[in-house]
Amino acid sequence: MEGFTDTVVIRGEECLYNPKTGIAMIQCEKCGHMNHVEIEVVDGEARFYGFSCENCGTFNSPD
User: Fold this and answer.
1) Residue 19 CA, distance from chain mean position
2) pLDDT tens for residues 4-13?
3) Which residue of 5, 25, 44, 49 has the fewest CB atoms within a 10 Å radius of its CB?
4) Across all residues in the chain, what is the average pLDDT?
5) What sign has the CA pseudo-torsion 61, 21, 34, 55?
6) Are strands 6-10 and 59-60 parallel, antiparallel or unpaired?
7) How far apart are CA 6 and CA 29, in angstroms?
8) Residue 60 and residue 27 in contact, taking contact as beta carbons nearer than 8 Å
9) Binning pLDDT at 50, 70 and 90, where does residue 18 land?
10) What is the Cα–Cα distance from 6 to 38, expressed in whole angstroms?
């Protein structure tokens, strides 16, 4: 995937990350679809505030 040059660890899993856009590819907990999610990296730790799956609509919490 173009632009996804780094990885970050989110919920214990390595995710592709685009540092220019701040977008990571995070898997939905329910259906497994890979979602484009805006994240922030603070002190080397990746954080997001939850997202609704682009495929099934399930809300994925950050915890």
Assistant:
1) 12
2) 999 999 999 9
3) 44
4) 94
5) positive
6) unpaired
7) 22
8) no
9) very high
10) 14
